[in-house]
Structure formats: structure tokens, C-alpha cells
Design goal:
Layout: H1 16-27, E1 38-39, E2 93-99, H2 106-126, E3 131-137, H3 142-154, E4 159-161, H4 166-173, E5 183-185, E6 197-199, H5 204-217, E7 222-228, H6 231-246, E8 250-257, H7 265-278, E9 284-287, H8 292-304, E10 312-315, E11 334-337, H9 341-354, H10 362-375, H11 383-386, E12 392-394, E13 397-401, E14 407-409, E15 412-417, E16 420-425
Parallel strand pairs: 2-3, 2-4, 4-5, 5-6, 7-8, 7-9, 9-10, 10-11
Antiparallel strand pairs: 1-3, 11-15, 12-13, 13-14, 15-16
Amino acid sequence: MTSWAPSRFAGLAPSLVLAAFLALAGCATGPSQPPAPISSGKPRVDPDPRTGQAGDDRPGDIHGTGIEADVNGMPLPQPGKFTPEYLEGRDIMRAAVLLPFSHPNANVRAEAEGMLAGIEMALFDHASEDFVLLPKDTAGSQSVATEAAEQAQREGAEFFLGPLFGANIAALNGNRLFAGMPIIGFSNDRTVAGGSTWLASITPEEEVKALVDHAVANGIRQFAYFGPQSDLGTRIQAALQFQAQQAGGIVISTGFYPAGEGSPTSEAQYLARSINQAEARGRVAVLIPERGTQLRRVAPLLAYYGVNRSVKLMGLSNWNDPGIWREPSLAGSWFVAPPQADLQAFESRYRRIYGQAPSSLASQAYDAAALVMQLAKDGELEREEMTQQDGFYGLNGLFRFAPDGTTQRKMAIFEVQPGGAVEIQPAGNSFAPDIG
């Protein structure tokens, strides 16, 4: 089994160039720009603030990488495989990072920057000395993502880390130019997985499965859904229906309400009546996939309309937020999340390097990059290695890629208690022999 110690944080610190890039991007109002290629073989050199040049490099050279820039500082397309001057004559591995650095939404841009930072941390922790990252801007557009992937392929990229959005992943899947080229995407849209595409994201289906399995193990076989009638909400409700049936349980009622509605009182009343009737037959658990302020608005409604305290409220990993744990209606509730010890160490290290908290997907980007960097040390990334049944340990716990391209994970269960959230069921440390 190929694996790495998730708490191993030895190695060179990511370059100060990218740290400065992230800090400036966080303050900017305009679109961000992707940085120059990043190599594990030699740290980049900070540019002279007077000239914009790195050390004695020739004019137009970006940070001493040997790649030319246009007048705006953007990397110019390369005529052939990109090879830094200091790696000339060596057999190097190149990976493209396809993320929306110039997306119109500032939150998406910040997420892309945080993910790139996580990938660069993995580069210095886990890659060989002959590994090069080629960051490319997808802008969140299918056409731009395809163009960026084509440019990266011309520059010698052997696999892709990204894109972030399912539509962009689908655009690459449908392009014959990339047939058989490994894509490690970060969308949670399971329909774009398969073939040579794997999704490194944590999907709501995996989270729902962990919750249902825990509930059934604790004697609960009746479930209800109380959440928004959005595409994601409908998907989560379907996952609850499927997992309950698989575990020998049943969904006794569903309370859909319009997405974004602050106080869905009529839906809460209907659901409360159904739950109280079902309690005569046994315990009930209610899945509420909301977060933050909306969760604090919605969760108390069930108790207000007469749902007993014996009913167990459940949430997904978006409940892993100290800001909601003081809500009285959530006392004793369960939520699912990755094991926290290594994530907390990662966050501390990220803050020390970049001066801010990691983005929500930075640790998943780190795990995906660390895995493929280790597997590619022999010069190739093979399907048989990617789908090892034993799986791999990452910052987010144990995971493995299924043959259909989706990811299976071992998640922990937490309970909201007066002093905060307490882990009541650790994440598993092994998978069953079968996979699929």
C-alpha cells in the first residue's frame, strides 16, 4: 500500500513568492493571476521590487523559472515542454494545476489560491526533486479550461490536478486530446467521474453514509430530511433515502422548503407531526444539511412545534463550526467530519506560512497532490496504483478511489456538547476487502 504519514510536515517551506502572491490577491479587488511554474528542484527567487526581475535573470523572465512573461506579467505560451534551466537534461515529471484564479466571484478566487497553496505545500513535502507544477487559470469557464489544459499538455503536463467545477471536468472528459490522461478533479459531482478521471473531493453521499451507519449502529432506523429543495438538497435527500434502505431503515418523512427561506414554519409543522407519529414505532434521526445562520434559524423550529428531545438531529461536515455549537436546539446532535488532529496541524502550519487560515478545500488539494506525487515518483501514474483497495492516509483521514472514479472515505462522528463538539466515533483505519 502506498501511503504517507498525514502528520509528516518535514521539508522545505513553500516559497515566499507564492506567500506574497496570496497576500496581495486577498487584498485585491480585481481578478487574480496564476503564478509561474513551481518546481521542487529549486525554490523560486524573489523578484527585485525595482525591476520585477529575479536576480540576474534576463528581462521578462518570471521568478527565475526560465519562462517568459507578457507586459502584464502573465506567462506566455511555451513552444514545447516546459523545463526550468536548472533541470535541463533531467527526466522531470510535470503536472498541470487547473483552477479558476480569475473567476468573477472573489470567494472562488480565494478558494483557488488556497488550493494552490495546499498543492505547493504537498510539492515540498512529498514530490521528488524533478517535479514541476504548471498552474493554469480556468476562469471557471469550460472553453478557458480546455484551452488551459491544451497549453499545459503542450508544455509536457502528464496529468491534471483540477479543474474545480464539474462542468469544466466534463469538458476535458469529452475532449479526445486528453483521452487516457489522468484527471484528479475537485468537484463533488459524481457524474463527471470515471475513465481516467478521479474526484478527490469529499462528497455529501459519503457523509450521509457515515451518519446513517452510525445511527443504525445506535438503534435508529427511522430517518427524516429537513432542508432546502435545491439541486444539492435533493441530492442529499436521495442519498439519505438510499443509505437508509441499504441499512435496513426507512425515511419516514421529508420536509423540503424553498432554498434560502429563513423560517420555513409550515414545513416544520408538517415534519414535526410525522416525526411524533413515527416515534411510537422507535427512535428517529433528522438530517438537516444547513449551515451557519440558516441552521440556527431552521433547527429550533422542530422543537418549537413539539418534536421530542429524544429525536436525534444530524448534520454534514458544514456543522464543524464552533459558531453554531452554542445553539440550544443542537445540544446532543451528531455531525460527520474528517478526523481533526492532522487537519489542525495543517491549519497551524498554513497560518504560519501564509498568515491566514486555509481555504475550505486546501487540505483536500494537499491530499490529492501528495498522493499523486508519491505515486508518480517512478515516472508514471498508473490506474492500478490509484485504485489500491487498502487506500491512502491523508490529512482528511483514510480514503481510496473506486473504479468508477469516486472517492470512498472513513469519516468521524462528532456530538455537540456544552463544551463544544466531541468525537464520539473515530474514523475507521481500514476498508473492507471489496471495493466498488
